[in-house]
């Protein structure tokens, strides 16, 4: 039975040692042996336009008019968005906006209410 840790990127159990590094054969991720791994949520902090830390379930307000790609409509300044969910990527907020539906926003264009 192997005592090597699972890959922090893909969770594969088939990791192996290469010198002082661990290597995942499935996703080719390499990381230092013996390094303490933090979970992705502990490392990642999402902040709004004012520097406040955002969490899942927060309510935010849009700070500038945002054009909706593929549509002629605009999300107006001051639009309130409830129950946000933080996701990975360039647009790091997933939410539903009344009158528009499901949408992804960048945290730099919102402020915490």
From TrEMBL:
Matches recorded under SUPFAM superfamilies: Prokaryotic SH3-related domain (SSF82057), Zinc beta-ribbon (SSF57783)
Alphabetical list of InterPro entries matching this protein: YjdM, YjdM_C, YjdM_N
Any Pfam family: YjdM
Lineage: superkingdom: Bacteria
Protein YjdM N-terminal domain location: 3-32
Residue ranges of every copy of the Protein YjdM C-terminal domain listed in the record: 46-112
Family: Belongs to the YjdM family.
Protein name (Swiss-Prot/TrEMBL): Alkylphosphonate utilization protein
Organism: Paenibacillus nanensis
């Amino acid at each position: 039975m192997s005592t090597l840790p699972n890959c922090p990127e893909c969770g594969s159990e088939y990791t192996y040692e290469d010198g002082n590094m661990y290597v995942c054969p499935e996703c080719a991720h390499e990381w230092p042996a013996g390094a303490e791994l933090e979970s992705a949520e502990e490392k990642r902090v999402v902040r709004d336009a004012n520097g406040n830390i955002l969490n899942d379930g927060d309510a935010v307000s849009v700070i500038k008019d945002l054009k909706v790609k593929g549509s002629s409509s605009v999300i107006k300044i001051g639009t309130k968005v409830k129950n946000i969910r933080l996701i990975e990527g360039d647009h790091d907020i997933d939410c539903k906006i009344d009158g528009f539906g499901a949408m992804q926003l960048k945290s730099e264009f919102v402020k915490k209410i």
